[in-house]
Amino acid sequence: MIPVQDLFASAPLLIIGGSILIALILEMVFDSQSSIVAWFSGSALLFTAYWSLYHLYDRGFAFNNMISISGRTQLLFFIVNFAAAVVVMFSMDYIKKIQTNYGEFYILLLSAVLGMMLIAAARDMVIVFIGLEQMSICFYVLAGFRRKNIKSNESAIKYFLLGSFATGFIVYGMALLYGASQTFSIPEYLAHVETLKSNPIFLLGSLLFVIGFTFKIAAVPFHMWVPDVYQGAPTNVTAFMSTAGKVSGFAALITFLSPFIDYSARTTGSAKFFMPFLATLSVLSMLYGAIVALSQSDVKRMLAYSSIAHAGYMLIGLSALSYEGVDGVLFYLVAYTLMNLGAFGIISILETQDEKMLKIEDFAGLSSRSPLLAAFLAVFLFALAGLPPFAGFFGKYFVFVSAVENGMTWLAIVGVISSVISVYFYLRIIVLMYFSKGENTEVVSVPKSALLGVFVVFIMFVIMSAFPQKFEGIIHTIGLLTY
Amino acid sequence: MDLYLILFYFFAIITLVSAFFVVTTRNVIYAAFNLMLTLFGVAGFYVLLGADFIAIVQLIVYVGGILILLIFGVMLTNKITDTDIKSGFLNRVPGLLIVGTFAGILIGTLLKSTWRIAAPLPPPVAGLVGIGNLLMTEYTLIFEILGAVLLIALIGAASIARKQSN
After folding, report:
1. What span, in angstroms and rounded, lies between the C-alpha atoms of A140 and A289?
2. What pLDDT does A471 receive?
3. What is the dihedral angle through the alpha carbons of A221, A223, A224, A230, rounded to the nearest 10 degrees?
4. Residues in A touching B105 (Cβ below 8 Å)
5. What is the spatial distance between Cα B57 and Cα B55, in angstroms, rounded to a whole number?
6. Which one has a higher pLDDT value, B95 or B91?
7. Chain B interface, mutation test: which of A33, A119, A126, most B Cβ atoms within 10 Å?
C-alpha cells in the first residue's frame, strides 16, 4: 500500500506527470495551430515551481525511501520548473519562427522536467538512472527538433551517441557499486561509508558513475559534444539544456557524493575522496572553456564554451566536499540558470528565420535597434563574466571561499584567473552593442511572450543580486535540514 | 570442474566471440546474426544466476522481437544488405593508450579486490508471482516511471518520424 502522505510529498512529480498526459490529450483534440498546449504546460510548470517554493521547508521520504523531499530537492524542483516555464515563454514564437510549431515540443519539455525532478529527488541509484534516461531521451529529440536543418540533425545524432556512451559509464559504475555494497540505496551508503570508502570496487564504481555525470555537466575532458550540440540545437532548446540540464547533472552528483560529503564533514576533512579528480576536471574546464571561448565567432558556440567554464567553477565547490561548497554550488546553479536563460532567450528573440544574427559581429549597433534587449543582454553578460554587483559574482565568491576554507587556495586562484580571461569575450559583445555601428539598422520586432520571459528572469535575477546574503542563508538552512 | 562452471564458460565464450564479430564485421546482416548469439549468451547468464523470468523476457523481447525487427529493417531497406559499413579509425595511438590504461585499471582492480560473495544476499524472489508483488509494492515508483520513459520514447520516435510540413 502507498500511504497518502507519500502522494502528497511527491505532489510536484505527480503534477508534472499528470500534465504530460493531459497535454498529450490536448494536443490530439485541439487544432495544431492553437497554442493551448503551450499555455497549459507553461501554467503547469509555473504552478509546480510555486508549489515547491511554498513547501520549501517540508521534508519527508516517499515510496519506500526511494525519493526524498527536502529543502534542497524543492529548490532544485523550483529551478528546473521555473527554467522550463520561461523556456515555454521563449518557445511560443520561436518554434513558429523556425517552422516547427508542433505540440509535442511542450510534451517533450514537460517529460524532460519530470526526469530532472526524479534525479533531484532520488535517494536510490535506480531512480537517478531512470530519471537521467527520461531527461536524455527528451533532449535527443529536442536537439534535432529542426529536422530540415542539417546542423540540428548533427547536433541530435552527436548528442545521442556521446550521451549513450556516457550512460554506459554510469550503468557500469552502478553495477560495480551494487557488487560492492549490494544496495542501490543512498541512505545505506551513508550508513556504511566507513567500510565502503576502503573498498576498491566501490571506489571504482563511484568513479565511473561520476565520470558519466561529468559528461552531462560538460566538464573537460568530457565536453566534446557541447559546442556542436549547443550550436546546432534550436536556441530555445539550448537555453533549456544548458541550464536545467546542467542543474540536474549537478543534482545527481551532489546526491551521489552526499555520503562522502557527510563523512568528510564529520571527520573534519580527513577524507577527501574525489578531491584530486574533481579539482583536476575543474581546473581543466575553467581554463579550457575561458581560453577557447576567446576565439569563437558564433555567439551560441561562445556561450557553449562559457558554460564549460562555468561547470568548472561549480566543480570547485563540489571538489571541496564540504557543506559550504555544496551551498555555494546551489547558489551558483540558481544564478547561472537565470543568467544563461536570459542570454539565450534574448538570442532566440534576435535570431532570424534563416539563422542570421548568430555571429558576434551581428550584435554591432544593437543598442539602437532594440535598446531594451541590448540593456538586458548587457546585464546578463556582465553577470556571466562575474562582475559585481550581480549574482554571478556572489556565486563565484561563495564557491571560491569554500575552496580557500578547505585548503585549496590554488584552485580559487585558477578560478579568478579564468574569470579575468572570460571578462574579455563577454565584454566584447557589450562593446559591440553600444560603441559600434552595424550595417543592419532595422528595428527588432520583439514578441510579447518572449519579452515577458526575459523580464521574469531579469526580475528574479535582480532580487537575487540584491539580497545574496539572505539567499545564501536560505540555501544554508535547507541544506542543514537535508541531512 | 562442475557443470555450472562449464556452462558459464560456454556462454561467456559465445557472448564474447559473437560480440567481437558484431563490432568488427563489415556486413550488416552478419552483425545482426552475431548480435543474436550475443543476446542468447546473455540470456544464458540470467538462467545460470537463477533469474528465469528475465532470461525468458530477454529471449522473447530481444532475440524474438528487436532482432527480428532489425533484420526486417535491413531486408526492407534498399541496397543496405551488401553495403560495407564505413567505419575507420582515428587517433589510433592515443585511443589505444587511453583504452589500455582504462582497461588496465578496471581489470587490475577487479582482479585484486575481494568480492563479497559470502555476504548474506536477500532471499531470491520466487518466480513471476514474487516479481509481480514486488513491482506493485516495493518498486511501484520504478514501475510507474519506466512507463513514463517508454511513453516518451514512443512520442520521441513518432516526433522524429512524422512528416513535417513546409
Report:
1. 23
2. 87
3. -170
4. 204
5. 5
6. B95
7. A126
- Closest CA of chain A from B63, distance in Å: 21
Q: Which residues of A touch B139 (CB under 8 A)?
A: 64
CB-based contact B141 A144, cutoff 8 Å: no
Contact at CB, A17 and B148, closer than 8 angstroms: yes
Q: What's the Cα-to-Cα distance from A236 to each of A193, A231, A299, A369, rounded to whole Å?
A: 42, 11, 14, 22
DSSP H helical ranges for A122-149: 125-143
DSSP helix/strand/coil, A260:
helix
For the segment A440-458, what is each residue's pLDDT rounded down to a tens digit?
A: 777 888 888 999 999 999 9
What tens digit of pLDDT does each residue of A18-59 get?
999 999 999 889 887 778 999 999 999 999 999 999 988 888
CATH architecture of the domain formed by B1-85: Up-down Bundle (1.20)
Domain span at residue A32 reads: 4-482
Q: Is A415 on the interface with B (CB under 8 A)?
A: no
The span from the CA of A178 to the CA of A174, in Å, is: 6
Cβ of A141 within 8 Å of Cβ of B166? The answer is: no
Q: Report the domain count for chain A.
A: 1
Q: Distance between CA atoms of B107 and B117, rounded to whole angstroms? A: 18
C-alpha cell at A347: 538570442
